[in-house]
Amino acid sequence: MNVEPTVRVQPAWTVAVVLANVGVFAAWFGPIQVLLAKQSQAVAPGNKEFVFGLVTGIGAAVSVVAAPIFGAVSDRTTSRFGRRKPWTLGGALGAAVGLLILSGAEGVALMLVGWCVVQLFGNAVLAAQTATVPDRVPVEQRGVVGGWVAVAQVPGALVGTALATVAGGIKLGYVACAVFVVLSVVPYVVRAHDTRLAVAPPPFVLREFLRGFWISPRRYPDFGWAWLTRFLFNVGNSIGLLYLFYYLQDEVGVPDAATSVLILTAIYSVCTLVTAIAFGSWSDRIGRRKIFVIWSGLVMAVAAGILAFWPTWPGAITGAIVLGIGFGAYLSVDFALITEVLPNARDRAKDLGVINIANSFPQVLAPLIAAPIVKHLGGYPVLYLLSAVITALAGVLVSKIRSVR
Major facilitator superfamily (MFS) profile domain: which residues (predicted)? Predict the structure, then answer.
C-alpha cells in the first residue's frame, strides 16, 4: 500500500536534491563523454573503440547490480540522520576515490578498477537521491519537482563535460570531477530534511532480501511496462551517444572532438532544461503523463535519424536541438509517471533501484551492439537508424500503462 506525502516541498529542498544529482551525473558523464574516450585512445590507439566499450560496459554491469542493492539497503537504514543522507555522502566520497584512481591509470586494468568504483558508489548517491522524491513530494507536485530532479543529468553532463574539457588534461579533468561530486552533496547533507524510518525494518533474511528484487510484471503490470519502456528508451539513447566523440572525430571530421562534444552538450542541455520544466508543469496541470512520453519518444527518434542521414556539423547541431526537446519532455514526465506505479511505499528506493537497472543495463548492451555496427555492419548511419527505431518503439509501448493517464 502506498502512503503518499501531502506537504509540498520548498524550493531550497529541491535545489539541494538537484545539485546532488548534478554532481553524480557530472562524475559519470565527464569521463564517458570525454575523459575515458581520450584515455582509451592514449592506451590503445589502434583499438580505442574496444577498450572504451570494455571499460564502460563492465562499469555499467557494476551499476546494474549496485543500483537496486543500495536502494534496498537505503530503505532499511535506521540512522538518526535519516535513510538517504548517509548513502548520499558516503557514495560521493567513494565516487571521488574512483575518479582519483582513474586520474593515475595508465593501463586498461586500472581504468577498469577506477571506473567500477565510480559506478558502484555513484549508484549509492543516485539510489538515495531518487527515492527522496516519492518520500517527500506530493503527487500533484511531482511533474515540476520530478522534472528538475530527472533533468539533473543534463546540467550534470554539461558540467562534467566542461570540467573534462577545460581542466587541462585527462588527470586534472578527473580531479575536477572528483572535487565537484563531493561539494555537490554538501547542501543536501547539511540542510535538507531527510525521512527517518518510522519503525524498525524486519529482521534481515538473505533469501527474502534477494527475493524482494523480483517485482512480478503479472502482479504489477504497469510497473513492468514502465520498466520495459525505460529500458528501451535507454538502449536507443545509449547506442546513439556512446560513440559521440568518435562519431564527431571520424564521421563528421571536426578538428577538435572534445570541444565539439562540449558545444553540442551545451545546446542539448539548454533545450532539455526548457522543455523539461515546461512539460513537467503542463503535465501536473492537466494530470496526464503518457501522451508526453509517447511523443517524446517519436521526437527523439527524429533526432537519431538526423544524425544518421546528415553527418555534418550543422546536422549534429540540429540533432542536438531536436534530441534536447524530446529528451526534456521524456525525463520530467516519465520520472513522475514511474513514481506513480511503484508497488510499495516502504520499498521505494529498492523499487526505483530496480527501475534504475533499466538505465544501467543498456550501457552494458550498448558496446556489444554498437561496436560491431560501427566496425563491420554499416557504420554510424546504421547505428543511428537502429537508435531511432528502438526509441520510437519505446514511446509507443508507453500506451500499455493503464493506471496512469
Answer: 222-405
CA distance 29 to 261: 11
Q: What is the pTM of this model?
A: 0.72
In sequence order, what DSSP letters do the residues of 81-128 get, joined into one string? T-SSHHHHHHHHHHHHHHHHHHHT--SHHHHHHHHHHHHHHHHHHHHH
Q: For helices 108-136 and 48-76, what crossing angle results, to 10°?
A: 40
C-alpha span between 214 and 224 (Å, rounded): 11
Cβ contact 133:111 at 8 Å: no
Query: Along the 405 residues of the chain, how does pLDDT read in single tens digits?
Result: 456 777 888 888 889 999 999 999 999 989 988 899 899 999 888 888 788 888 988 988 898 888 888 887 887 777 778 888 999 999 999 999 999 999 999 899 999 999 999 999 999 998 888 888 877 888 777 767 877 787 788 789 889 989 998 888 899 999 999 999 999 999 999 987 777 766 666 665 556 656 666 676 778 888 888 888 888 988 888 887 777 888 898 889 888 888 898 888 888 888 888 887 777 777 777 777 788 888 888 999 999 999 999 999 999 999 989 988 888 888 777 777 777 777 766 666 677 777 777 777 787 788 788 878 887 888 888 999 999 999 899 888 888 887 776
Rounded to whole angstroms, the Cα distance separating 324 from 337 reads 20
- Supply the DSSP symbol for 80: T
* Residue 377 dihedral angles phi and psi, to the nearest 5°: -120, 35
Residues sharing a CB contact under 8 Å with residue 198, sequence separation 6 or more, in sequence order: none
Short-list 3, 12, 14, CA closest to 198:
3
Q: Are 279 and 147 in contact (CB under 8 A)?
A: yes
Residue 218 backbone dihedrals phi, psi, to 5 degrees: -75, -40
297 backbone dihedrals φ, ψ, rounded to 5° = -60, -40
96-107 burial string, b = 16+ CB within 10 Å, else e? Answer: bebbbbbbebee
CA pair distance 322, 180, nearest whole angstrom: 29
What are the structural domains, with CATH classification, of the chain? 11-193+209-400 (1.20.1250.20)
Q: How far is Cα 44 from Cα 37, in angstroms, rounded to an integer?
A: 11
Question: CB-based contacts of 320: which residues, under 8 Å, 6+ apart?
Answer: 264, 265, 267, 268, 271, 303
CA distance 383 to 388: 9
CA 83/CA 94 separation, integer angstroms:
18
